[in-house]
Design brief:
Shape: elongated
Largest sheet: 5 strands, antiparallel
Structural class: mainly beta
Helix content: under 10%
Number of helices: 0
Radius of gyration: 16 Å
CATH topology: Immunoglobulin-like
CATH superfamily: ApaG domain
CATH class: Mainly Beta
Length: about 130
C-alpha cells in the first residue's frame, strides 16, 4: 500500500509468521512475528513519528497499540530509502488480523498518515 502527500509517497509491506516456540496453544496464546518494510517511493524526505495498530482475533477481540516510533526508532527516509523492522504480538485465537497507520512528517514539517493495509495472522494449516 502506498500513501502520498504532495511529493511524499511511502509504501508499506508486511509479512507475518507464526512463532510456535513462543505460543501456548493450551492457554489460548498464539504468538506472531511480523516484518514491516517502509519504502520512500516519493521525492521528499520523511520521518516516521509514530504508529497506531489495530489487532483483531477471530473472536472479535480488538487490541489497539499506539506509540512513538517503531522498535525504539523514528527513522528518516530519504527518497529511495527503506527501513525494515521486525516486531511481534500475541492473540487468543490461531487466526487474526492487523492493520493501522503510521504517522509521518515530511521535510517541510507537514504531518501525514500512511495506512498499513490489513494482513492476516494465521497458524500454519489453519486457513485453506
Amino acid at each position: 500500500m502506498t500513501s502520498t502527500q504532495g511529493n511524499t509517497a511511502i509504501e508499506v509491506r508486511a509479512v507475518a509468521q507464526f512463532i510456535e516456540e513462543q505460543s501456548h496453544i493450551e492457554a489460548d496464546r498464539y504468538a506472531f512475528a511480523y516484518r514491516i518494510t517502509l519504502l520512500n517511493t516519493g521525492d521528499v524526505t520523511a520521518q516516521l513519528l509514530g504508529r497506531h495498530w489495530i489487532i483483531s482475533d477471530a473472536q472479535g477481540h480488538i487490541q489497539e497499540v499506539e506509540g512513538s516510533g517503531v522498535v525504539g526508532q523514528q527513522p528518516v527516509l530519504r527518497p529511495g530509502e527503506s527501513f525494515e523492522y521486525t516486531s511481534g504480538c500475541t492473540i487468543a485465537t490461531p487466526v487474526g488480523t492487523m492493520k493501522g497507520s503510521y504517522q509521518f512528517v515530511n521535510e517541510d514539517g507537514r504531518p501525514f498518515d500512511v495506512p498499513i493495509p490489513e494482513f492476516t495472522l494465521a497458524m500454519p494449516r489453519i486457513l485453506h
